[in-house]
Amino acid sequence: AAFMMGAAYIVTGSVNQACVESGTSDIVRKLLAGAEQADVAMAAAADMFEMGVKVQILKRGTMFAMRSNKLYEYYRAYN
């Protein structure tokens, strides 16, 4: 559908992680399969933290998004 609407390319990261060949755990595959729109959040990227880059993460069952964003707020306030 995306190509029919004129997209030049599409990104399929979660689909690739959910397949058996990805090498990820069964728990991760189950979480990805059951994820809904409300289960996703934006969090500070570990590898580009200083630049304020955010990445999309699966937030269900974790405090990672809130904690990483709070850590980035502290970094900006006291750096």
What does this 3D model show about the protein?
It is a single chain. The chain is α+β, with helices and mostly antiparallel strands and 79 residues long. The chain has two domains: 1-34, no CATH class; 37-79, no CATH class. It is built from three helices and two strands. The chain has a two-stranded antiparallel sheet. The longest helix is centred in the last third of the chain and has 15 residues, at 64-78.
Question: What are its keywords?
Answer:
alpha+beta; 2 strands; 79 residues; 3 helices
Number of domains: 2
Specify the biggest β-sheet.
Answer: 2 strands, antiparallel
Mean of all residue-level pLDDT scores: 89
Provide the β-strand percentage band.
5-15%
Radius of gyration: 16 Å
SSE order, as H and E? HHEEH
Number of helices: 3
Q: Largest sheet, order of strands side by side?
A: 1-2
What structural class results from the helix and strand content? alpha+beta
Distance between the termini: 45 Å
Helix content: 25-40%
Task: Give me the count of strands.
Answer: 2
Q: Write down the overall geometry.
A: extended
List segments where confidence is low: pLDDT < 50 over at least 5 consecutive residues: none
